[in-house]
Design goal:
Chain lengths: ~190, ~270, ~900
């Protein structure tokens, strides 16, 4: 910064030389203030999304800078929400960026008193083994009259109302093929 | 002190003065404004305190709550079915036409923007706290552990990008409306007449009048009861009303000294 | 109806919903309607933020909505205020019933066909006169209906019409004593304003104001919209609540018309989607039923049960939908020769619902449990049963964003404090797998108005976080790999499963678009996406994952991703997202025109017949065959779609009519009838039958219900949501900006109840039921008020149910207070009303809590112990005032039950 711009940046100088003689407006604006702009303007990308809370289906715009979500706000184009959000929808950025969010697999062994860490691939493998074993142990081929049952009552699942249609589709498809019928979600509640 | 229009604040061809009209008759008390404000401005939360003031648990405007929704439960006997009325109202900095906070700020941290709004510059504020008792509404507040003064900026950064302030954008029922102040005043008048015609005779505007004690607010309200009911001062007066006479001499003297210093300083420039 | 369509309403009745608080952004349309002059009415046990903005608030005793709605029906019929032309043309009002039908008026609260042994109806006598509908014989018995109940078969009929004959005997004068209109009139004749006041606690004047507004704002030129949420569904008579609302809307001609209809506000981002593409035990995608072992041993029997021969409507093509689903699942392995792998489908034998599961977990019958973005430890009724069930598994997989209570119950759940769960003795192996958030994956949500909206992915999920798509795709892949080479017949279904979704990115994320394409359906030979379900074939030449979603990928374009700005299209906004079926925004919209195809009025024009063009036209996709003229009459032997006449507006119904009376399909009766909630403080003044005789009960020591009219549990309570939190709290108590807005569990009481029980504002109190004790801070508010019901004062208490042991703000869970008793049609629990006691001060902790509860149960006559007077054994560890007033005369619980109970009660 040259000395001249340093001086010209001095509020009192601007107050005396500009149109803001009382020094309560343009004259006292700091460099930072002068350069201020909405962070949505400088985002690297914006994704068109939908609020994850209730079923109104408000449109959201998700702004990203350097790989981080920097802002989530209503999508004014949406004919349902017209850019508006409730407090939960407005808190979506906090929801997805919270330091409280769990980012690692945790494992509690039988009779354990605390969590342990577990590698994701190992966890997947262990879960697959348990599904196969539970299914084998509880498989029912036919009823007492020989009619097909083709199922297991050893496995249950709950959830889906906060998930995508594509996810629910795969959940139902896989469990049905495994013979697991006790698949439920919030719609029953 | 005189009206502080954007033009008088040193801006060449400023945009029209922008403000908020908060129509509390359609507020549903969802507090989206509080959250959207905090998300955008990255304001810290205000702590977890069950206050028992109906559904209000942030208590009032503060350094960490720049929009605040008041809830007032009013029993009403002999009425129709409801038997009560539940008023909700989102409060905010009034961005006064004659803003005492700005008058008393010794550092120039508080300033009037080209939109006619009153904003604290966080890089200038030194935390002296003079502005806090100056505000007739008790809006501006020092943040604990930080010391600086904080309040609604009317999303100055968003305004510069031609965006609606976060609270007004989120508001589900358009209780918070943002726009050129003149236009908002017309809209508010029309809404008031509509409510009066509908028999809502207690409806009134608050802070819309340029002749009031703060020269009119940049953020004004439509209320359904007396301002006191909402925790608003009935007749706010700019606390620096008498300052001009007091300061005229002293100020001039100080300015003369400062100018002399500048001249002397510049004079040494090679 | 679309939420935006509310602006077209002249009156909006919100009942069983706290819309302003639970759907605030949707509520903008109510406010806009109000600004345009619509009258907004809110009927609710508690004055809420919705009531605050309504023109008229009507307080009501929780659990009595059918009495209220029945009163409205009676008002309409006795004043002949129905929209007669609409009613005659589009409803079954004129249809004549079977001679054997007996009403609740004849049988003191029961319909004909009731079997006390099965606690179920044989619905044969409910049928229409004349040609018998060809229902499967199993269904036409009380045993069959018990199966119906076990398998929640009612939910299937969310879209497919139960079997009835296409042509019915009718009396267009509506004078025949057995026509539906007259049956309805008689059924509701005793639901007078006086009885409404007596049961609901609604003053007559207020009730009549609702009736007057509702009827005045309905008809040719005006429409009233009805809005409900889980305030209606979570009851032992939940389905009949909604039936009652639908009857009013049909009588007043408010269905299928702009600003009319019934808007069900659902509570989760894609709960509609998870019903359409169900993660539900009794359904397959598109409301195809899961096969039942006895009813559906073969493909033909299964399909035959979905659609009866001779029935009208679009379910006639059920075989195409079913075969296409099997092709989507099992691809090349599914052939005509093997009935398209029908035998791979697992079979139901009874009730496999979430509550049955939980009790089975307690009984050690279930080994493994997946929780996928759901927190039953807080969000489901009877929290203790949920937690004890989870503590008795071999393994539990929890997939969520945060460490929710259902993942940590073994460590810090309430039962750890009481000693009922000891971590070192709890065998459940727990896997917590962090989930990807909604911005870290792409896919569609289906929101409350059946609209699919595609979300773009903003960022990659952090750390180990993954989408459910990733988890299930890779789990399936690993299991398939581990079972490869198996020769066991049971493994064929998994080995033959089509599972070849393309993956991308560093984590091998499967393509959600590829899955959506499969859901849409495609030609097997070419892979070309089908344009809609009318192109699905029953010969295996098409595959389709969910027939009602067919068209979402029409032309190979992701229609759900369309985002044409609202300013660039009309208010119906057909180019924003995609709505099932066929991008139709307003269902049954043929009814927006009169029988001749003309709009009922200019003001309410929506869809009409364009004679010159020879087709239906208007603002939406017509919910009718586009070129079928209004005067079309089917040949006598027609069936299916062909059998729909040009004025059969209800094209999914077997007779093409909107049902004022449901001759089949419902487990608990063809008409809504007022029954008291399972836990009620008063008798049923209308009938000897106190509660829904067919409700699902699980009578066991760990699921006891408070006795009816119990002095020990004298108060009514309800639980619900706050704007500032979300369901079980996992997505809100973890967020500081939300937690600070409602930072603590509280209990709302009226000033009168506070005085009666010595409760102080912001002081502590605890609420007690047979299941649990829940404490919170007291909020004394006029928003709750005592009601005068059946000659006495009833106090109602309200609690939010968002709290649990995890997150930034913690507290007791209100859902712990509820027992498990369910609606018989859909197996949804009664968690909007129960009875309780409330006492000042904090609850006991540790084992003393169990003793405290046991004492209450003893005094209430539960646990087989002594009656109320004998239960004076003091625990000594009890806190302030934990006993009933000693001065009050005791009465053995249950002795005041009125009338015959049909042996139906579990408690």
């Amino acid at each position: 910064m040259g000395i001249r711009s340093w001086i010209e940046g001095w509020p009192v100088y601007r107050q005396l030389t500009g149109d803001d003689p009382t020094g309560r407006g343009a004259a006292v604006r700091s460099t930072r203030t002068g350069q201020l702009t909405a962070r949505t303007e400088t985002a690297d990308s914006m994704a068109r999304s939908v609020c994850p809370y209730c079923a109104v289906g408000c449109g959201q715009r998700v702004y990203v800078k350097d790989g981080e979500v920097t802002q989530i706000e209503g999508d004014p184009d949406s004919p349902i929400s017209r850019g508006r959000l409730c407090p939960k929808g407005a808190a979506s950025r906090s929801l997805v960026t919270s330091p409280l969010r769990q980012r690692r697999v945790l494992y509690r062994r039988p009779y354990g008193t605390d969590w342990e860490e577990l590698d994701l691939d190992t966890a997947m493998d262990m879960i697959a083994d348990r599904v196969i074993a539970a299914r084998a142990a509880t498989w029912e081929d036919t009823d007492d009259q020989g009619r097909p049952l083709h199922r297991t009552l050893g496995i249950a699942a709950l959830g889906g109302a906060t998930l995508d249609n594509e996810e629910n589709y795969l959940i139902k498809k896989l469990f049905t093929a495994l013979g697991a019928i006790q698949i439920e979600n919030q719609a029953r509640i | 002190m005189g009206e502080q229009s954007p033009a008088s604040a040193g801006y060449q061809q400023p945009p029209p003065r922008m403000g908020f009209f908060t129509d509390t008759s359609v507020c549903i008390g969802c507090k989206a404004c509080e959250v959207a404000c905090k998300e955008w401005n990255q304001v810290p939360d205000d702590g977890l305190n069950l206050l028992g003031m109906s559904f209000d648990n942030t208590g009032g405007l503060s350094a960490n709550t720049w929009r605040h929704v008041a809830f007032i439960e009013q029993p009403r006997n002999g009425d129709t079915g409801s038997g009560m009325r539940w008023l909700m109202s989102s409060d905010v900095c009034k961005h006064c036409t004659r803003a005492a906070c700005l008058d008393v700020c010794p550092t120039g941290a508080l300033f009037r923007t080209e939109f006619g709004t009153v904003v604290v510059q966080e890089d200038i504020c030194n935390g002296c706290g003079y502005c806090i008792p100056a505000c007739p509404y008790g809006v501006i507040d020092q943040r604990r552990g930080d010391g600086r003064a904080w309040k609604c900026t009317l999303c100055y950064d968003r305004l510069k990008a031609d965006l609606t302030p976060a609270c007004a954008k989120a508001c589900p029922t358009a209780s918070i409306q943002y726009g050129p102040l003149e236009e908002l005043r017309e809209r508010a008048q029309a809404r008031l007449e509509q409510l009066h015609e509908a028999g809502e005779t207690s409806a009134r505007l608050y802070g819309h009048d340029p002749d009031d004690g703060v020269g009119g607010a940049g953020a004004f309200f439509l209320l359904l009861d007396e301002p006191e009911v909402y925790g608003l001062p009935p007749d706010p007066v700019v606390t620096t009303r008498d300052l001009p006479a007091m300061w005229r001499r002293a100020g001039l003297a100080a300015l003369t000294m400062a100018a002399a210093a500048v001249v002397a300083f510049l004079g040494r420039r090679p | 109806m679309p939420q935006q369509d509310l602006v077209n309403a002249d009156c909006i009745v919100i009942q069983g919903s706290n819309m302003a608080e639970c759907h605030p952004v949707g509520f903008q349309w109510v406010m806009e309607a109000k600004a345009r002059g619509a009258k907004v009415i809110h009927i609710d046990p508690r004055f809420t933020r919705t009531s605050a903005l309504a023109d008229l608030y009507v307080p009501i005793r929780a659990g009595t909505d059918i009495a209220f709605l029945g009163g409205v029906i009676n008002y309409i019929l006795s004043n002949e205020l129905d929209f007669r032309e609409y009613v005659l043309a589009y409803t079954n009002a004129a249809t004549i019933l079977n001679e054997d039908f007996r009403d609740t008026e004849d049988l003191d609260g029961l319909f004909s066909g009731y079997s006390p042994k099965q606690r179920a109806y044989d619905p044969t006598s409910w049928r229409y006169q004349g040609r018998q509908q060809a229902a499967s014989t199993e269904d036409a018995t009380s045993e069959g209906m018990a199966i119906h109940r076990q398998t929640a078969a009612g939910l299937e009929q969310e879209s497919h019409g139960p079997p009835v004959p296409a042509l019915t005997e009718r009396d267009e004068t509506l004078q025949h004593p057995r026509c539906v209109y007259q049956i309805l009139k008689r059924h509701f004749s005793r639901y007078t304003p006086e009885i409404v006041e007596q049961i609901c606690g609604v003053p007559k004047k207020l009730f009549l104001e609702v009736c007057e507004a509702w009827t005045r704002n309905s008809g040719r030129d005006r429409t009233t919209a009805l809005v409900y949420s889980v305030g209606w569904t979570q009851h032992t008579v939940g389905v009949q609540y909604i039936r009652a609302g639908a009857i009013i809307q049909l009588l007043l001609g408010n269905v299928g018309r702009p600003g009319g209809g019934v808007l069900a506000l659902r509570g989760h981002a894609s709960i509609q989607g998870s019903t359409d593409i169900p993660t539900l035990f009794n359904l397959l995608p598109g409301y195809l039923p899961m096969p039942h072992h006895a009813k559906h041993p073969t493909l033909e029997q299964w399909i035959g049960d979905i659609h009866q021969p001779g029935q009208k409507g679009f379910w006639a093509n059920a075989r195409a939908y079913a075969v296409s689903l099997l092709k989507a699942y099992w691809g090349e392995a599914a052939t005509a020769d093997n009935d398209y792998c029908y035998d791979y489908l697992p079979r139901l034998t009874g009730d496999h619902g979430t509550y049955r599961q939980v009790l089975n977990m307690i009984d050690g019958k279930i080994k493994g449990y997946f929780l996928l973005g759901q927190n039953p430890a807080v969000g489901s009724a009877h929290g203790k049963a949920q937690r004890l069930g989870m503590a008795n598994l071999d393994w539990l997989v929890v997939r969520d964003l945060y460490l929710i209570e259902s993942a940590t119950f073994w460590k810090d759940g309430p039962e750890v404090a009481t000693g009922e769960i000891v971590p070192t003795e709890c065998r459940t192996e727990v896997f917590f797998l962090p989930a990807a958030s909604h911005v870290e994956k792409e896919g569609t949500f289906t929101q409350t108005q059946r609209l699919l909206q595609w979300r773009e992915k903003a960022v990659d999920p952090p750390g180990d976080c993954r989408s459910e798509l990733w988890f299930f795709y890779h789990l399936g892949r690993i299991i398939k790999a581990k079972l490869a080479g198996s020769t066991l017949p049971r493994d064929r279904a998994i080995l033959d499963l089509t599972w070849d979704y393309p993956t991308h990115g560093p984590h091998d994320e499967p393509s959600a678009e590829a899955v959506l394409k499969e859901i849409n359906g495609y030609e097997v030979a070419t892979g070309r996406p089908v344009p809609g379900f009318t192109e699905l074939a029953d010969d295996g030449s098409t595959a389709c994952g969910c027939w009602i979603y067919s068209g979402v990928y029409a032309d190979g374009v992701n229609q759900a991703a369309r985002r044409k700005p609202r300013h660039e299209q009309d208010p119906v906004a057909s180019e924003w997202g995609w709505a099932w079926p066929a991008n139709r925004r307003l269902l049954y919209n043929r009814a927006s025109a009169d029988p001749a195809g003309r709009p009922w009025s200019d003001r309410k024009a929506y869809i009409w017949w364009d004679e010159e063009a020879g087709q239906w036209t208007g603002y939406d996709v017509p919910d009718f065959e586009r070129t079928k003229p209004p005067d079309y009459r089917p040949p006598a032997d027609a069936a299916g779609v062909e059998a729909l006449a040009g004025d059969d507006a209800f094209i999914m119904q077997g007779d093409g009519k909107g049902w004022l009376y449901a001759p089949t399909g419902l487990v608990d009766g063809p008409l809504p009838t007022h029954y008291e909630p399972a836990e009620s403080p008063v008798p049923n003044p209308l009938y000897g039958q106190h509660t829904n005789p067919t409700r699902m009960i699980y009578d066991r020591p760990d699921n006891q219900l408070n006795p009816a009219e119990s002095e020990v549990f004298p108060y009514v309570f309800s639980a619900g949501r706050l704007t500032e939190h979300h369901t079980g709290g996992g997505m809100s108590r973890t967020v500081a900006y939300l937690s600070e807005l409602q930072p603590e569990m509280f209990i709302e009481v009226s000033p009168q109840l506070a005085a009666e029980r010595g409760l102080t504002h912001l002081g502590w109190a605890h609420v007690v039921t047979a299941r649990a004790v829940v404490e919170g801070r007291v909020l004394i508010t006029e928003r709750l008020r005592p009601l005068r019901v059946e000659g006495r004062i009833i106090h109602q208490i309200w609690l939010p149910y968002h709290w649990g042991s995890q997150g930034l703000t913690t507290g007791d869970s209100a859902n712990d207070l509820f027992g498990i008793t369910l609606d018989p049609n859909v197996l949804i629990q009664e968690s909007k009303v129960g009875t309780c006691d409330i006492r000042p001060g904090r609850r006991p902790t540790g084992p003393a809590l169990l003793e405290y509860l046991a004492d209450y149960r003893r005094r209430a006559g539960l646990d087989g112990a002594s009656g109320p007077n004998g239960a004076s054994r003091s625990s000594g560890r009890r806190r302030s005032g934990g006993r009933t007033d000693p001065g009050k005369p005791g009465r053995a619980a249950g002795t005041r039950r009125r009338g015959k109970n049909a042996g139906a009660e579990g408690e």
